[in-house]
Amino acid sequence: MNNHFFMQFINSRVTRDYYESCAKRTTNLASINKTQMRSTPIAFPPLEEQKAIVEKVNTLMGLCDGLEQEVQQSQEHSEMMMQSVLREVFEVK
């Protein structure tokens, strides 16, 4: 089994939903026992397919990281523009 595939699977929404459905809740804490963990339904595609899935997910995550940076830069640029406009409006001449 590809370790990266396994980690992506464990962190997937489907798996988290499964754990949430099994969890016992007490005082804002959720717990799950070893038996429930071992009963986690896991789909194991062939190793080559696992590698392809990991590669695709990594590519898409890279795109997401790039988009996050662009959004951050746009927000910073907007803030600088707003500061410039405010300075110009309120500057005493």
From TrEMBL:
InterPro entries, per the entry: Restrct_endonuc_typeI_TRD, Restrct_endonuc_typeI_TRD_sf, Type-I_RE_S_subunit
Keyword DNA-binding: yes
Record's keyword terms, sorted: DNA-binding, Restriction system
Limits of the Type I restriction modification DNA specificity domain: 24-72
Signal peptide positions on this chain: none
Gene3D superfamilies linked: DNA methylase specificity domains
GO molecular function, one term: DNA binding
Gene Ontology BP terms: DNA restriction-modification system
Domain of life per record: Bacteria
Family of this protein: Belongs to the type-I restriction system S methylase family.
Name of the protein this chain belongs to: Type I restriction modification DNA specificity domain-containing protein
